[in-house]
Amino acid sequence: xxxxxxxxxxxxxxxxxxxxxxxxxxxxxxxxxxxxxxxxxxxxxxxxxxxxxxxxxxxxxxxxxxxxxxxxxxxxxxxxxxxxxxxxxxxxxxxxxxxxxxxxxxxxxxxxxxxxxxxxxxxxxxxxxxxxxxxxxxxxxxxxxxxxxxxxxxxxxxxxxxxxxxxxxxxxxxxxxxxxxxxxxxxxxxxxxxxxxxxxxxxxxxxxxxxxxxxxxxxxxxxxxxxxxxxxxxxxxxxxxxxxxxxxxxxxxxxxxxxxxxxxxxxxxxxxx
Amino acid sequence: xxxxxxxxxxxxxxxxxxxxxxxxxxxxxxxxxxxxxxxxxxxxxxxxxxxxxxxxxxxxxxxxxxxxxxxxxxxxxxxxxxxxxxxxxxxxxxxxxxxxxxxxxxxxxxxxxxxxxxxxxxxxxxxxxxxxxxxxxxxxxxxxxxxxxxxxxxxxxxxxxxxxxxxxxxxxxxxxxxxxxxxxxxxxxxxxxxxxxxxxxxxxxxxxxxxxxxxxxxxxxxxxxxxxxxxxxxxxxxxxxxxxxxxxxxxxxxxxxxxxxxxxxx
Lengths: 273, 266
Fold this sequence. Notes:
The complex is a heterodimer. Chain A is an all-alpha fold. In chain A, 81% of the residues lie in helices and 0% in strands. Chain A has eleven helices and no strands. In chain B, helix 3 crosses helix 4 (94-107), helix 3 (60-92) packs parallel to helix 6 and helix 5 (116-123) packs across helix 6. By secondary structure, chain B is mostly helical. Chain B starts with a helix and ends with a helix.
């Protein structure tokens, strides 16, 4: 399941042998082609510019909304929801996952619930959450947390199970107590899996948050911005919103997790970068 | 561990699992019956089962499920139809890779649901929007998994087949496709999972009058929580069947038989 996230960075390695300038040019080229096609279609007058705005109009809206602070406000609200929901999910998910990995009883009790809940798409719960918690932030954050907990639980559980028995036993033979065993053997051993789980959880939270914002009638947020702009046929605003969403998504993937991995897993020698 | 002992362990785990589920259902029932919450928000299990049974009997639930399946399979099929060949081309030709990969990595982090409002403006409410959203969600896992599968084919196998006189055609069908199959199957599975999530969201936002996602969302307006919960049961059931039965048997029929299973596990 983790394939798709790891692959994009794999190409960076392949192309590193060329010069920086050539690399930038090569990565930019497809965007120039697509942009040129878009411009040609937009200016050809096949579709009304309301529905198919040229790139300069999108850029103008983007600049105007950024300077007036509307776009940053929407983006910050979305990020706050993502952070709150994901932090909740990480806390609950890692705890439950480790508990399931360490205790046979917890595994027997929780695994059936996890395997029933996981395959139902998170958004399907959205109306239920809206009914129970009312529209607004509580529902949105709760649902994001709920959805992203599953991959975190599953991977933390697998990670603890994957810690080699011989490490545990040799640590015990050397006189490690439970706390040291956990802190110095089980946690570092399970960490590559936990990181994968967090990564998948964050990706899932991100994919679903925009949809939730459209459904939950929150007052700010990128999903709401796009959805609200539809009423007024502001295609340029919608596309500017999508650009921000893409930028945040890329940043999450490239910066947050690659950094976090360098600081923990790679530094402890559990994975080579 | 002997086979008997393993069987006993399995049986015990199964029994404890069933016990958990019964306990949770009983807890739900107790809370629902306690009268602290309105029955409109938390209907007892009997009412949910009754609604589910009725809607299955008169065929409405089946029709909703059929619409959802039609949308998800069209979008998923389209994604496979485009993603698979494109992924193979990316793996085989550097130029295609250089062109497609930057676009894919820029588009992939955009959640498919973010496109719904624009697509509604362009195509109006209905099937085209849902199918396109499903297609967008399913395309990238398919594309990237196929691409890395083709790249992961052991070059030694290619040279060995070449030395034994395989032509391009044979090389492709007898070496590259089986070699990449664990990745391709993982891609299919992941794509379908994404497609399944996307179709429910898309139906909530863009479907007009049929579909499991639409039922749930529509039921909210009328506080029909029993309808919502019974539709959730159907969604979970379809998800479970497709994941375990369909993809499980595809895996058995292909990569296990070809002896590629160990590669799939990594």
